[in-house]
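Assemble and predict.
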Amino acid sequence: MHKHHPIHCIVPPHMLEGIATKGTEAQKRLAISTLKTSEQMRGQRRALADFSAAAFRVAAVGGKERIVYDAKNGSNLPGTAVRKEGEAPTADVAVNEAYDGSGVTYDIYKEIYGRNSIDANGMRLDSTVHYQKGYDNAFWDGQQMVYGDGDENLPVSERLFNRFTIAIDIIGHELTHGVTQFEAKLTYFQQPGALNESMSDVFGSLVKQYQLKQSASQADWIIGAGLFTSNVNGVGIRSMKAPGTAYNDPVLGKDPQPAHMKDYVNTVSDNGGVHINSGIPNHAFYLTALELGGNAWEKAGQIWYVTLRDKLTSSSKFQDCANLTHQTAAELFGVGSMEQQAVKNGWAGVGLTVGAPTEPGGGCLAALLRLLGIGK
Amino acid sequence: MDVERIKFERTGGFAGMRIAADFELGDLPEEEAHTLAELLDDLDFGELPEQLMSDSSMSDQFSYTITVETEKWKHTVVTGDSSAPEKMQELLQMLNQLARKQARKQ
């Protein structure tokens, strides 16, 4: 027999780092050893998204067209169709949430931004629920939305996540990945990736605010409210109002999001921190919307939407987004308008000065992408 | 193949939280160790390409890094939710469960 040598394992690195500084001596030693192990395990890898629309299996149709599928805890997509456009609710709450949530998302894009679905050409909205067992995630696979049931396969006392259709902003978030795929095509890596994530949080939150008819000051600006079970000390996954404060839990650790450029996190994990640094542009949007008052989806949402549709490119960084939203505000509301000033103040609140130069040529990643023929 | 040690890491996802596990097969309950060994054997893990990634959008998908060590070789495979072959899904789900279980024991 070989030597028994259990190194054990880990949850998120930010939790370990907390233990390494604040835990008991034994906890510290364990945390430091696991952190070292994980550093060794962590490979340099990145995912460059190929946003080719050519492979789309869904045909363009006239208007709002939804299908919800059931993967029946398997991995085959899309699974079995269980509710189609116009059909009555089923007995399955996840099916109905996916149907209704994608419906409200379609509505805000159509009625407020004049966009007919993800591709602006009536693309059918396909969602699959009950993906795998114990799948604590939701994602956009390039063609459709996919939702897991959380950790439903664990005993109740150990569960951390509910089903991922429970929060409508998650549904808006996933669908907006589709919109970004057809428009700015933001590369899912480092700052362009964090902007991609932020756009999904912005419009995810706006879908919820639009559904609840809440003004910017009434909204909670939480992404994924209700997703955690009562075993977790947290209100949701991310806070646009106060990034870094959504959760602080013994098992999950602390929300690692920064709210300001001075706290920008350099990491190779999570495609270069796309779900971490998105806190910075998220907060800039929140500050802008709050200063403008009223419904965030109207003025602030319009400025961000037009910027996403017409101005951002695959390699855009935070400074580009600041400059381009400022430019869009001038085009929509006038140079020197209060709307343009609110955008300027929003970015200033996260440490970015509009009008400051962006890196020549968009930086190293853009150069590489151009070389590979991927970038705009 | 006589698998000795498995390292597993899951990053990304909607919540951006990372989980990982690093264990010797001999430390697991016999039945679990047997199932894992069979799944790896079935996949011919040592012969899999190091990058099993698709070209499609990765938005919010989990990224998995699995390293398997035997007496003779050590092999690492990186994959994602929609790029992992169907045959690998059961292995990924089992490793996820093991990582969660071990995390709670800390």
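Chain A has eleven helices and nine strands.
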